[in-house]
Amino acid sequence: MADISPIRLVIHGGAGAIERNKLTAEREQAYRHALALSLITGHAVLAAGGSSMDAVIAAIVVMEDSPLFNAGKGAVFSHAGRNELEASIMDGATRMAGAVAGVTTIRNPIRAAHAVMTKSAHVMLIGQGAETFAAEQGLEIVDPSYFYTQHRWDQLQKALAKESVLRDHDADSSAPLPDVDEKRGTVGAVALDHHGNIAAGTSTGGLTNKRYGRVGDSSIIGAGTYADNRSVAVSATGTGEVFIRTAAAFNTAVQVGLQRIPIAEAADNTLAEIAAMGGDGGLIVLDTSGNYAMRFNTSGMYRGTIGNDGIAWMGVFPETVHS
Ligand code: ASP
Q1: CB under 8 Å to 70, separation ≥6 — which residues?
Q2: Which residues are catalytic?
Q3: Domain 8-169+177-315 belongs in CATH node 3.40.50.880
Q4: Alpha-carbon 176 to chain mean position
Q5: Pocket lining: 238 vs ligand 1, CB cutoff 6 Å
Q6: Could you identify the atom of ligand 1 that is nearest to the CA of residue 86?
Q7: Any ligand 1 atom below 6 A from CB of 279
Q8: pLDDT per residue as tens digits for the range 169-181
Q9: Which atom of ligand 1 is found nearest the CA of 214?
């Protein structure tokens, strides 16, 4: 195997109002452990000469299978009491992309996004059609109850109660829920393989108490996910609507690719634009030389990275700056 390019994997497990006093040492350890498992699993793919695309899938599947993250098992509940999942993936070498949204029975939506990319003529499939396609492709289909976790169910009940309080006293029932961290969270990965190719992927359950078939940025190519070998691979987490309106992932890639802005600065510029429009969140960014950034304008972002040395680094709060 021609070992010409450095390898790198960067992941996030969601950004938000992560409160230090609410995050017990035990719970932080659990997150760090899950992040480490995701990093080591993805790294094994890269170290064996596998593609950045396969590393992104491997890393995300670990987080989708963990009840800690708002993706796959552990996804939040919609207003109707369902887990409506979405995911997207993009290959920087070919700029092929795939996405699914509004799916309730696909165990690993990131695999379905990849199947859409590689086995269909389309970029995005939604709802039942996406589920039928995933089943035809031999992906694991589960009963919707697989996604149930008590913690997320309780969060929905809390969200519903808060809304009804709002409705009682305030005509504006669209007012945001106060506890940001409890209604958000997403997972994502960007990777660089030995062949010098980058890829990005993102997977989420979206927002607690979302309605009307709401879809966020995580399954939108250019918003939550983007990859182009000529610039960067990006995965986002945050207030989805604003990330869509700012084309956050593509916006970041364009700054690097066309304006030659350093990647951390490009991510910060995008986040500043998002903040100016009332949003917040984080971005992980990686280029074909192995330069990377993990930036966020929330109180915390679950995140981590691993390179050629195979040593996993994980962080939650800002002071543990790594790049
Ligand atoms: N971006 C996700 C969404 O809007 C949520 C998150 O990343 O926290 O669905």
Answers
A1: 14, 76, 152, 184, 185, 186, 187, 204, 205, 206
A2: 186
A3: no
A4: 22
A5: yes
A6: 9
A7: no
A8: 233 334 444 444 4
A9: 9
